Amino acid sequence: MTGKKAVLFTVTTTAFLIPFMGSSVNVALPHIAADLDMDAVLLSWVAAAYLLSAAVFLVPVGRIADIHGRKKVYVYGIVVFTTFSFLSGIASSPAALIAFRFAQGIGSAMVFGTGTALLTAVFPRGYLGRALGITVAAVYIGLSAGPLLGGLLTEHIGWRSIFLAVVPLGMSAFVLAVLRLDHDEVEAKGESFDLGGSVVYSMALMFLILGFSRLPEMLGLWLVAAGFAGTGFFLWWESRQRNPVLDIDMIRSNRVFALSNLAALISYSATFAVVFMMSLYLQYIKGLTPQNAGFILVCQPVVMALFSPFAGKLSDRIEPRIVASAGMAMTTVGLIMLAFLDGNSSLGFVVMGLAVLGMGIAFFSSPNTNAVMSSVDSRHYGFAAGMVGTMRLVGQVMSMAMAMMALSVFIGRSRITPEHYSGFVDAMTVAFFVFAVLCFVGMFASLARGKLR
User: Fold this and answer.
1) Sign (positive/negative) of CA torsion 336, 338, 339, 345?
2) How much is the pLDDT for 98?
3) I need a surface site. Which of 47, 291, 381, 391 has the fewest CB within 10 A?
4) C-alpha–C-alpha distance, residues 412 and 410, integer Å
């Protein structure tokens, strides 16, 4: 296997593994709630804690990889992810499960913060979109397999089997990375790591995400205010560092880079919590088993997997902003369709809405990533990959925070029981309409980024 193929194969393997974990857990949430006695808001932290830690650590991890070696960080990330997958599978309390999921997210950050950079370093720009399309397709295949296999495992063995099943896959990925991954250029060797900036960044982001998840409570308002204040201090601090963890000058001077990342943040904020809400809708409101809910949910990532390679290849020939903006338009339509769901909606309409949403995300994701990575030089690949992943993860956590806020307003700290079903549907409707508006606004950020070539 040649160097390029080895890197592509290894990164594609882990690109499948991590989203497979996430989508499997979504299907198992009702069973986790019943087993560990968790209310709707606490249950959402099983997904949100993982995303929170991944978002907090992704940019610092990308910078560390540029300084000390991408392969090294990538391999250690697989070890961390696999270890805490096992511990999540044997967790005996809500606190333990959420803590292990937080640690699992750190491993995910180490993997995703370096995988795209490894690819970008070995593939020339004329072929990068195709390579990214393949890895994005692997992500969506993982998302596709998750609901199916997760539903089967949960229904016939139990929710813990989902976490434990990942362990041998993670061990295989570790062996593959050690034996096959030779490319490990250190583009920023000898440069210092901005520890102070990393700490301020992490705390500010954590305050923002925690704050949004606690709105409209007063504590949530204080946390959001602290997060914005910390963000302002972080930007001031970074502008005065010789080797910052976040290159402010690149964001100021590189319009394509800045607006492509903004578009990614908006897109993920508008779409990620859809699977979380739809999993609960199908099992609680429509009365489906985890296995049957998985069969319905799988239509979205299957469409994403089918069209992502084509969209990535198309973005090598056509301006990425055109392809990505068209994808955001389709995503908006899909979200509006899902916003009209109620207890009487047909499963055929559900599938149609998820399919339209999946096609929109496919046409946005890989072209947008191609635009980000192609707008920087090789010295900043780790940073750029970290920013792409951070926008994705921050967007995902913000999406979950908005869903949590909707559940808190319409249901409160209660289990989702029949007397709360109408409140859940109202929460889902409001959340999906807000997501649709966000995605509509995101189209203009995507179009405004300018020409890449």
Assistant:
1) positive
2) 92
3) 291
4) 6
User: What are the tens digits of pLDDT across the range 298-317?
Assistant: 888 788 878 877 887 787 77
- Reference 20, options 176, 215, 173, 186; nearest CA is 173
Ramachandran angles phi, psi of 64, nearest 5°? -60, -40
The pair of three-digit structure tokens given for residue 177, joined into one six-digit string: 């990375």
Can you tell me which residue has the tokens 């943040």?
265
Instruction: Answer for the pair 424, 280: CB distance below 8 angstroms, yes or no.
Output: yes
CATH code of domain 3-178+245-447: 1.20.1250.20
Taking the domains of the chain in order of start, what are their residue ranges? 3-178+245-447, 194-244
DSSP state letter for 93: S
The pair of structure tokens assigned to 274 is 């859809």
**Total residues found in the chain within this entry:** 453
**382 phi and psi angles, rounded to 5 deg:** -65, -45
Residues 243-299: tens digit of each pLDDT = 776 777 777 777 888 888 888 889 988 998 898 899 889 988 998 888 888 889 888
Rounded mean pLDDT, 384-388: 73
Report the distance separating Cα 125 and Cα 132, nearest Å: 11
The rounded distance, in Å, linking the Cα atoms of 326 and 446 is 9
HSE-CB of 283 using CA atoms within 13 angstroms: 26
Name, in order, each residue with C-beta under 8 angstroms of 139's C-beta and a sequence gap of 6 or more: 15, 16, 19, 308
* Bigger pLDDT: 352 vs 240: 352
Q: Cα–Cα distance between 120 and 373 in angstroms, integer?
A: 7
pTM (2 decimals)? 0.74
Could you give the C-alpha distances from 385 to 59, 168, 212, 271, in angstroms and in order? 8, 27, 25, 21
Q: Please compute, for residue 298, the number of CA atoms within 13 A of its CA located in the half-sphere on the CB side.
A: 19
Alpha carbon distance 50, 46 (integer Å): 7
Do 16 and 142 contact (CB within 8 A), yes or no?
yes
User: Is residue 202 helix, strand or coil?
Assistant: helix
| pLDDT on residue 449 | 64
Q: What is the mean pLDDT of residues 117-142?
A: 73
